[in-house]
Write a structure and sequence with these properties.
single chain, mainly alpha, 0% strand, oxidoreductase, transmembrane helix
């Protein structure tokens, strides 16, 4: 049998950074032409799997020549891999648990488009290209929120469009200011992150700090940093399914990654206000706000929004510290993405089982589906920082760096961690092992979703217990990319 021979040009393209970006975007367009929801769901799974393979190939095949607009490095590779994994898990979940007729195909198309755009934002070496990708994510996410129809969903979608539109304007202004500050010393490459890291010490510190402030306000809104996080609880509460936590987490990671790169550029040029101090304040405020929201949450959407807010706050604290703490922040972002996806899958299964999204209605899941209750408890326990899962390792590294570098930070950080963990575990106990409502029925099936959750939990366990040597080396290199 004759094999198919691929030309060197095709092989070079497959090993380039473009497949993880173009495959999801082309797949989203392809789903618009497919009439069958079932076939569309299978196509979405195939496209997500191919995109993940493209990301994995980037890690094994060294790039030849100048990478151009897209530049993979240890920092974005550590975020691309978990993003591809959870996107694939979300596509499989929609195949196993279809959305209402007419929504499934549109949901898969929008999710694939968001995956392609966030991959572009992560890989882009050009600040303007990253801004464009993030700016397009807002309307796509609003479409996902509006699929539920009804006044609350439309109101949440409009709020998201308006806030993200204003945030995109601020982010663009920040990119322009940084480019103007760097242009005298960087020339035409003033928007290249790699070039900015080389020349920012010679640029004017004032405009660089101002540009970072605009980017922090703009991209920080997309990342749901406190106090510019108000769109997140409304969007999650109005979403048609708890699975919206997956695209929200993808966008949040890409936006926070852009903020980290801008902070690294501004930090190299000394100014009267250290850029990391603002991230420290936003991160601690986010952790406190998340703990308060967890106590007050009454539905799965706001509960997941509070979980996401707390994890983003932890990463922001790590990035505010800078230096070796960046390793803890990147590990926290990757682990939180996996844990949040596992929790979203579990809560989606629970809402279908109980026929409602109120946490009171979902209480005592162990009486209906013990396997689901334990799996969901493990995912939420990971976000609470329980050992030996990966978030615990990230938090341990963060506390260690905080004590070594800023001892005064140990007390507020410790209080925030205790409050966040206590609120998460308290709600987990009532949700999974509390008294069930009187109408609770015993579950059947659901093995496919439980298997997906188990795979995500195994990834968290592997990162926490073993942390393979190549990944540990990538973490150390990531701290050098954006110190």
């Amino acid at each position: 049998m004759t094999g198919i021979a691929l030309s060197p040009a095709v092989l070079d393209w497959l090993a380039s950074p473009w497949p993880p970006v173009l495959l999801p975007l082309v797949g989203a367009l392809l789903l618009a032409a497919i009439g069958s929801a079932r076939l569309g769901a299978r196509v979405a799974v195939a496209v997500a799997a191919l995109s993940l393979c493209g990301v994995a190939l980037l890690g094994f095949v060294p790039l030849q020549g100048d990478p151009g607009l897209l530049r993979p490095d240890p920092l974005n590779m550590l975020l691309l891999l978990p993003a591809g994994l959870v996107a694939l898990g979300g596509a499989v979940a929609v195949l196993l648990l279809p959305l209402p007729e007419g929504a499934g195909r549109a949901w898969n198309a929008a999710t694939l488009a968001l995956l392609g755009l966030t991959n572009l934002a992560l890989l882009a070496d050009d600040l303007a290209l990253a801004w464009m990708a993030l700016a397009l994510c807002g309307p796509v996410l609003a479409l996902l929120v509006a699929m539920k129809r009804g006044a609350p969903a439309l109101a949440a979608a409009w709020k998201l469009v308006l806030l993200c539109g204003a945030a995109s304007g601020l982010g663009l202004l920040g990119v322009v200011v940084i480019a103007m500050a760097a242009q005298p010393v960087a020339g035409e490459a003033a928007l290249s992150f790699e070039t900015l890291m080389r020349v920012s010490r010679e640029a004017e510190p004032g405009p660089l700090l101002l540009g970072f402030l605009f980017i922090l306000a703009g991209h920080g809104t997309l990342a749901a940093l406190v106090p510019v996080h108000l769109w997140l609880p409304a969007a999650m509460a109005a979403a048609p399914t708890p699975l919206l936590a997956i695209p929200v987490a993808l966008l949040g990671n890409a936006a926070l990654h852009a903020v980290l790169r801008a902070r690294a550029v501004a930090t190299l040029s000394p100014s009267w206000l250290p850029p990391g101090a603002l991230l420290l304040a936003a991160g601690l405020a986010g952790m406190g706000m998340a703990a308060w929201m967890l106590w007050r949450s009454r539905d799965t959407g706001r509960f997941l929004a509070a979980c996401a807010l707390g994890q983003t706050g932890l990463a922001a604290v790590a990035f505010g510290l800078g230096g070796p703490a960046v390793m803890a922040g990147v590990l926290q972002m990757a682990a939180a993405l996996l844990a949040l996806a596992a929790a979203a899958l579990g809560l989606d299964r629970a809402t279908r089982l109980r026929g409602g999204r109120g946490l009171a209605r979902l209480g005592g899941l162990a009486s209906s589906d013990p396997r689901l209750a334990w799996a969901l408890a493990a995912a939420l326990g990971a976000m609470a920082g329980l050992p030996p899962l990966a978030p615990f390792v990230a938090e341990f590294l963060l506390v260690q760096q905080a004590v070594a570098r800023l001892p005064w930070l140990a007390l507020p950080l410790g209080v925030a961690l205790v409050l966040l963990a206590g609120a998460t575990l308290s709600r987990t106990r009532r949700l999974c092992f509390g008294p069930p409502p009187g109408h609770a029925a015993v579950a059947t099936g659901g093995g496919g979703v439980l298997l997906l959750i188990l795979l995500l939990l195994l990834a968290l366990l592997g990162l926490g217990l073993f942390l393979p040597t190549p990944l540990a080396a990538l973490l150390a290199e990531a701290a050098q990319v954006a110190p």
